[in-house]
Design goal:
357 residues, alpha/beta, 6-stranded parallel β-sheet, 44% helix
């Protein structure tokens, strides 16, 4: 099978790199037709002055028909503006969209950059619907998110399938060996989805525990008023993240209370599981699709700092619990989210779409 991975997608973003790697692992010939717009930008939708012009020029370039022969086209993330060019490039072959997020969900409901019902919010929802409807198949990262995207687009449920995010295994692998003192690791963009307020409140509830925050973004001002048991590093190179995870006592997922937070499992959760690092994250419908409380992770109510502090004290104070979560988390990853498993899943979805064609 030959697949064209297509668009203005961020080439190094974990979802794109992992999908391409997983497909190649199961023998799919993946070619790329990529025009850079978002690459190298930590917040890829805030591309700064000139972004609209760069995107317009990129779309014109993408309209040029690719020379390579292929069986299907996958539009990578972020790719909501790429579907018109993708349909032209496909020349009648199936177009699969890997959106990862809804734009309106992200910028209106989660990050609050635009007011619900505003012209900007309505425009983003229209972009979402048009992109989702233009694809022959949409592949979401969880069942909860798939149901949301199908409802948003008004699409039949069988037009939106699921493949977990996983982790890029050329980078992330087993090796958990926690250093002293026990350190709780948070990695990620400082956005509402992650529940940074809850993490910092838990740090204040448990001043005897040591926290390490890695990341920057929208809520950076909260970190500047952090308690003394929280260290902050604004950025770590992607290839250094496994070393951070391997020496951490445990890793944090997300704890936000938005509707979006209920529907997603972030990259960093899969990366922690791949490394065998014990994971503590919010108890959500999405998390329950992959994780079992006290077996593969500790799950706590979203937004509950006291519950989070209590869970972290359990992991920090009981080596047997930490080791059980390490082994159980790695086992869940291998069973449901490894590159081999997800490569087979993506290939199965593509083959099914080709049979329909």
């Amino acid at each position: 099978m030959r697949v064209l991975y297509f668009g203005t997608y961020e080439r190094d973003y974990p979802r794109n790199a992992q999908v391409i790697s997983s497909l190649r692992r199961v023998g799919v010939d993946v070619r790329e037709r990529h025009v850079a717009v978002w690459d190298g930008r930590r917040d890829n939708w805030r591309a700064g002055p000139g972004a609209a012009a760069r995107l317009a020029l990129a779309e014109l370039r993408l309209l040029q028909r690719p020379r390579a022969e292929f069986d299907a086209v996958i539009v990578g993330y972020p790719g909501h503006f790429d579907l018109t060019a993708a349909r032209r490039a496909a020349r009648g072959r199936p177009v699969v969209f890997n959106p990862l997020v809804s734009l309106s969900d992200t910028f209106v409901d989660d990050r609050g950059r635009f007011r619900a019902g505003s012209p900007a919010a309505r425009a983003l929802a229209a972009v979402d619907r048009r992109a989702l409807r233009a694809a022959d198949l949409v592949v979401a990262d969880t069942r909860a998110n798939a149901d949301h995207l199908a409802e948003l687009a008004g699409s039949p449920p069988d037009r939106v399938e699921v493949a977990f995010v996983g982790a890029e295994e050329r980078v992330f692998g087993p090796g958990w060996a926690p250093a002293e003192p026990f350190t709780i690791l948070f990695v990620g963009k400082l956005i509402p989805l992650h529940g940074l307020e809850t993490v910092l409140a838990a740090a204040r509830e448990a001043p005897e525990l040591r926290f390490r925050l890695v990341g920057s973004g929208q809520l950076e001002q909260l970190v500047r008023g952090r308690p003394p048991n929280v260290d902050w590093l604004p950025w770590v190179e992607y290839v250094r993240l496994p070393a951070e995870l391997h020496r951490a006592g445990c890793a944090l997922g997300i704890f936000g209370t938005s509707a979006k937070a209920q529907r997603v499992i972030p990259n960093k959760a899969f990366q922690a599981l791949a490394c065998g690092t014990p994971l503590v994250t919010a108890d959500t419908p999405a998390a329950r699709e992959l994780l079992v409380d006290r077996e593969s992770a500790l799950l706590v109510p979203p937004g509950d700092a006291a519950a989070l502090a209590g869970a972290l004290r359990r992991v920090a104070g009981d080596l047997e619990t930490a080791q059980r979560l390490s082994g159980g988390g790695r086992a869940a990853y291998e069973a449901h989210a490894s590159e081999q498993v997800l490569g087979r899943r993506w290939r199965e979805l593509l083959e099914r779409e080709l049979e329909r064609w």
